[in-house]
């Protein structure tokens, strides 16, 4: 079994800066924001960006995963307070509001749910499945 080495402190800081700048850039320019500009604004080279996030999709997913997890977690809260059908509709409404408020989230969800980013897709599919089965 291969040992997973912990990320160095400087690499962790670079990753965190890249994510913070990516969220800003995607909010400003949508999912088509320049990756080179994101790297420059984060104070790192393009190679560092691609080492952490090999594709635009990987960066989008990492940048928005926390937001999607929060929306997905609302499914359980809503399900506990409403009948099944009403809970699904209320959660889908919250998901739609999130997509309108966060530029780039709609594009990410479109690819994640149809087989793109596994973490985001699993997060949203899992919440929807729990509500449908409730």
From TrEMBL:
InterPro entries: Homeodomain-like_sf, HTH-type_TetR-like_transc_reg, HTH_TetR
Keywords tagged on the record: DNA-binding, Transcription, Transcription regulation
Start-end of DNA-binding region: 34-53
GO molecular function, one term: DNA-binding transcription factor activity
UniProt KW Protein transport keyword: no
Domain of life: Bacteria
Pfam families assigned to the protein according to its UniProt record, in alphabetical order: TetR_N
Residue ranges constituting the HTH tetR-type domain according to the UniProt record: 12-71
Keyword DNA-binding recorded: yes
Full protein name: Helix-turn-helix transcriptional regulator
Organism listed in the record: Streptomyces coelicoflavus
Lineage, opening ranks: Bacteria, Bacillati, Actinomycetota, Actinomycetes, Kitasatosporales
């Amino acid at each position: 079994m291969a040992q997973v080495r912990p990320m160095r402190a400087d690499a962790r800081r670079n990753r965190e800066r890249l994510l913070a700048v990516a969220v800003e850039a995607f909010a400003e320019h949508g999912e088509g924001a320049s990756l080179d500009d994101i790297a420059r604004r984060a104070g790192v080279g393009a190679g560092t960006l691609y080492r952490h996030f090999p594709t635009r999709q990987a960066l989008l997913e990492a940048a928005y995963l926390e937001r999607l997890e929060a929306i997905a977690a609302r499914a359980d809260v809503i399900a506990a307070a409403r009948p099944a059908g009403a809970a699904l509709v209320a959660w889908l409404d919250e998901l739609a509001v999130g997509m309108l408020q966060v530029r780039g989230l709609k594009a990410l969800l479109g690819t994640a749910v149809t087989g793109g980013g596994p973490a985001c897709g699993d997060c949203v599919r899992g919440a929807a499945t729990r509500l449908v089965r409730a």
